[in-house]
Protein backbone atom coordinates (compact mmCIF):
# COMPACT_ATOMS: atom_id res chain seq x y z
CA UNK A 1 0.00 0.00 0.00
CA UNK A 2 1.20 3.49 -0.79
CA UNK A 3 -0.34 6.81 0.22
CA UNK A 4 -0.48 9.64 -2.30
CA UNK A 5 -2.13 12.73 -0.85
CA UNK A 6 -5.41 11.43 0.54
CA UNK A 7 -5.58 8.33 -1.66
CA UNK A 8 -4.57 4.86 -0.45
CA UNK A 9 -3.35 2.64 -3.29
CA UNK A 10 -3.76 -1.02 -2.38
CA UNK A 11 -1.59 -3.80 -3.71
CA UNK A 12 -0.79 -7.33 -2.66
CA UNK A 13 2.63 -8.63 -3.73
CA UNK A 14 2.79 -6.03 -6.50
CA UNK A 15 -0.73 -6.64 -7.86
CA UNK A 16 -2.92 -3.51 -7.70
CA UNK A 17 -6.13 -4.10 -5.73
CA UNK A 18 -7.71 -0.66 -6.00
CA UNK A 19 -7.76 2.64 -4.17
CA UNK A 20 -9.72 4.42 -1.48
CA UNK A 21 -10.10 8.17 -1.47
CA UNK A 22 -10.71 8.87 2.21
CA UNK A 23 -7.74 8.77 4.56
CA UNK A 24 -10.05 7.37 7.24
CA UNK A 25 -10.62 4.29 5.06
CA UNK A 26 -6.94 3.44 5.25
CA UNK A 27 -5.95 0.83 7.83
CA UNK A 28 -4.79 2.24 11.13
CA UNK A 29 -2.03 0.93 13.39
CA UNK A 30 -2.24 1.36 17.17
CA UNK A 31 1.43 0.62 17.91
CA UNK A 32 4.57 -1.10 16.72
CA UNK A 33 6.68 -2.78 19.38
CA UNK A 34 10.16 -4.23 19.28
CA UNK A 35 10.77 -6.01 22.58
CA UNK A 36 13.45 -8.34 23.86
CA UNK A 37 12.70 -11.92 24.92
CA UNK A 38 11.98 -10.69 28.48
CA UNK A 39 9.31 -8.26 27.27
CA UNK A 40 11.48 -5.19 27.78
CA UNK A 41 11.53 -2.31 25.31
CA UNK A 42 14.05 -2.05 22.52
CA UNK A 43 12.06 0.36 20.29
CA UNK A 44 8.35 1.22 20.48
CA UNK A 45 6.00 3.67 18.79
CA UNK A 46 2.42 4.35 19.87
CA UNK A 47 0.08 6.09 17.46
CA UNK A 48 -3.10 6.37 19.57
CA UNK A 49 -4.08 7.27 23.11
CA UNK A 50 -5.44 3.80 23.85
CA UNK A 51 -2.64 3.55 26.43
CA UNK A 52 -2.51 7.10 27.85
CA UNK A 53 0.27 6.69 30.42
CA UNK A 54 3.73 5.19 30.43
CA UNK A 55 2.56 2.69 33.06
CA UNK A 56 -0.31 1.58 30.78
CA UNK A 57 2.07 1.18 27.84
CA UNK A 58 4.58 -0.84 29.87
CA UNK A 59 1.78 -3.03 31.26
CA UNK A 60 0.47 -3.70 27.74
CA UNK A 61 3.97 -4.56 26.49
CA UNK A 62 4.56 -6.98 29.37
CA UNK A 63 1.12 -8.58 28.94
CA UNK A 64 1.39 -9.08 25.19
CA UNK A 65 4.92 -10.44 25.60
CA UNK A 66 3.84 -12.89 28.31
CA UNK A 67 0.82 -14.07 26.30
CA UNK A 68 2.85 -14.77 23.15
CA UNK A 69 6.09 -16.03 24.73
CA UNK A 70 5.26 -19.73 24.53
CA UNK A 71 4.18 -19.63 20.88
CA UNK A 72 6.40 -20.57 17.97
CA UNK A 73 6.39 -17.42 15.86
CA UNK A 74 9.89 -17.83 14.45
CA UNK A 75 9.30 -19.06 10.90
CA UNK A 76 6.01 -17.25 10.23
CA UNK A 77 4.11 -14.41 11.82
CA UNK A 78 1.29 -15.31 14.19
CA UNK A 79 -2.00 -13.46 14.68
CA UNK A 80 -3.90 -13.29 17.96
CA UNK A 81 -6.66 -11.30 19.63
CA UNK A 82 -5.53 -9.56 22.80
CA UNK A 83 -7.46 -7.01 24.90
CA UNK A 84 -9.86 -6.31 21.98
CA UNK A 85 -6.97 -5.71 19.56
CA UNK A 86 -5.46 -7.68 16.70
CA UNK A 87 -1.81 -8.40 17.43
CA UNK A 88 0.46 -9.76 14.71
CA UNK A 89 3.89 -10.85 15.90
CA UNK A 90 7.08 -12.62 14.93
CA UNK A 91 10.22 -13.60 16.84
CA UNK A 92 13.74 -13.28 15.40
CA UNK A 93 16.60 -14.41 17.66
CA UNK A 94 16.08 -12.58 20.98
CA UNK A 95 13.86 -9.86 19.48
CA UNK A 96 10.07 -9.94 19.38
CA UNK A 97 8.30 -7.80 16.77
CA UNK A 98 4.63 -6.80 17.34
CA UNK A 99 2.10 -4.73 15.39
CA UNK A 100 -1.21 -3.90 17.09
CA UNK A 101 -4.38 -2.74 15.32
CA UNK A 102 -8.09 -2.47 16.01
CA UNK A 103 -10.33 -5.51 15.60
CA UNK A 104 -11.92 -4.02 12.48
CA UNK A 105 -8.62 -3.93 10.57
CA UNK A 106 -7.57 -6.48 7.93
CA UNK A 107 -5.16 -9.05 9.41
CA UNK A 108 -3.33 -9.51 6.09
CA UNK A 109 -2.54 -5.82 5.85
CA UNK A 110 -1.33 -5.74 9.46
CA UNK A 111 0.79 -8.86 8.79
CA UNK A 112 2.26 -7.09 5.73
CA UNK A 113 3.25 -4.14 7.94
CA UNK A 114 4.93 -6.52 10.39
CA UNK A 115 6.79 -8.39 7.64
CA UNK A 116 7.95 -5.11 6.10
CA UNK A 117 9.30 -4.01 9.49
CA UNK A 118 11.06 -7.33 10.17
CA UNK A 119 12.57 -7.51 6.67
CA UNK A 120 13.70 -3.86 6.73
CA UNK A 121 15.41 -4.39 10.10
CA UNK A 122 17.12 -7.51 8.71
CA UNK A 123 18.36 -5.50 5.72
CA UNK A 124 19.55 -2.57 7.85
CA UNK A 125 21.29 -4.82 10.38
CA UNK A 126 22.78 -7.02 7.62
CA UNK A 127 20.96 -10.12 8.92
CA UNK A 128 22.51 -9.73 12.40
CA UNK A 129 19.13 -9.35 14.08
CA UNK A 130 19.68 -9.53 17.82
CA UNK A 131 19.18 -7.24 20.79
CA UNK A 132 22.79 -6.04 20.98
CA UNK A 133 22.97 -5.11 17.30
CA UNK A 134 19.51 -3.52 17.45
CA UNK A 135 20.52 -1.32 20.40
CA UNK A 136 23.76 -0.32 18.64
CA UNK A 137 21.68 0.72 15.60
CA UNK A 138 18.64 2.09 17.43
CA UNK A 139 18.64 5.25 15.31
CA UNK A 140 18.15 3.16 12.15
CA UNK A 141 15.31 1.17 13.73
CA UNK A 142 13.52 4.34 14.87
CA UNK A 143 13.90 5.83 11.37
CA UNK A 144 12.54 2.57 10.01
CA UNK A 145 9.42 2.92 12.18
CA UNK A 146 8.97 6.49 10.94
CA UNK A 147 9.10 5.32 7.31
CA UNK A 148 6.53 2.55 7.86
CA UNK A 149 3.79 4.37 9.81
CA UNK A 150 3.04 8.02 10.49
CA UNK A 151 0.31 8.92 12.96
CA UNK A 152 -1.10 5.41 12.70
CA UNK A 153 -1.43 5.55 8.90
CA UNK A 154 0.59 2.99 6.94
CA UNK A 155 3.04 4.71 4.59
CA UNK A 156 5.15 1.86 3.24
CA UNK A 157 5.41 -1.93 3.60
CA UNK A 158 8.15 -2.77 1.07
CA UNK A 159 11.27 -3.58 3.09
CA UNK A 160 13.76 -2.54 0.40
CA UNK A 161 12.05 0.84 -0.04
CA UNK A 162 11.96 1.36 3.75
CA UNK A 163 15.62 0.39 4.17
CA UNK A 164 16.60 2.59 1.22
CA UNK A 165 14.88 5.63 2.71
CA UNK A 166 16.45 4.97 6.12
CA UNK A 167 19.90 4.62 4.54
CA UNK A 168 19.37 7.90 2.68
CA UNK A 169 18.38 9.66 5.93
CA UNK A 170 21.40 8.29 7.78
CA UNK A 171 23.79 9.35 4.99
CA UNK A 172 22.42 12.91 4.90
CA UNK A 173 24.10 13.67 8.22
CA UNK A 174 27.44 12.32 7.02
CA UNK A 175 27.67 14.02 3.64
CA UNK A 176 27.18 12.78 0.13
CA UNK A 177 28.49 9.42 -1.01
CA UNK A 178 30.96 11.04 -3.41
CA UNK A 179 32.29 13.26 -0.60
CA UNK A 180 32.75 10.17 1.57
CA UNK A 181 34.58 8.33 -1.21
CA UNK A 182 36.94 11.26 -1.81
CA UNK A 183 37.54 11.63 1.93
CA UNK A 184 38.25 7.91 2.24
CA UNK A 185 40.66 8.03 -0.71
CA UNK A 186 42.52 11.01 0.78
CA UNK A 187 42.72 9.30 4.18
CA UNK A 188 44.12 6.14 2.56
CA UNK A 189 46.67 8.18 0.57
CA UNK A 190 47.77 10.00 3.75
CA UNK A 191 48.12 6.68 5.54
CA UNK A 192 50.29 5.20 2.75
CA UNK A 193 52.42 8.36 2.64
CA UNK A 194 52.94 8.27 6.41
CA UNK A 195 53.97 4.59 6.28
CA UNK A 196 56.43 5.21 3.43
CA UNK A 197 58.01 8.14 5.30
CA UNK A 198 58.46 6.05 8.46
CA UNK A 199 60.40 3.32 6.64
Helix-strand topology string: EEEEEHEEEHHHEEHH
Content of β-strand? 25-35%
Largest sheet: 5 strands, antiparallel
> Helicity range of the residues?
40-55%
User: Termini separation (Å)?
Assistant: 61 Å
**So what's the overall shape?**
elongated
Q: What do the pLDDT scores average to?
A: 81
What's the CATH topology name? Beta-Lactamase
Beta-strand segment tally: 10
The strand line-up of the biggest sheet is 5-4-8-7-6
What CATH first level would be assigned? Alpha Beta
State the domain count.
Answer: 1
As a whole number of angstroms, the C-alpha radius of gyration is 20 Å
The parts where pLDDT drops under 50 for at least 5 residues are: 2-7, 174-178
Content-based structural category: alpha+beta
Helical segment tally?
6
CATH architecture: 2-Layer Sandwich
What can you tell me about this protein's structure?
- The chain has 199 residues and is an alpha+beta fold.
- It has helices at residues 54-68, 107-124, 131-136, 138-148, 159-172, 177-198; strands at residues 2-4, 7-12, 15-20, 29-36, 41-46, 78-82, 85-92, 95-102, 149-150, 153-154.
- It contains 6 helices and 10 strands, in the order βββββαβββαααββαα.
- It has a 5-stranded antiparallel sheet with strand order 5-4-8-7-6, with helices on both faces. Strands 1-2-3 form a 3-stranded antiparallel sheet, with no helix packed on it.
- Strand 1 (2-4) and strand 2 (7-12) form a beta hairpin.
- It is elongated.
- The N and C termini lie far apart (61 Å).
Amino acid sequence: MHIHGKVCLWEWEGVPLGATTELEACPSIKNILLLDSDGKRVAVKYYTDDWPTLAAKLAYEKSVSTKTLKTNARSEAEITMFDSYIVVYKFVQDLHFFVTAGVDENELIIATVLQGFVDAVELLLRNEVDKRTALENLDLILLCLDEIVDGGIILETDASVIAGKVATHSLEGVGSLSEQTISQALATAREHLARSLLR
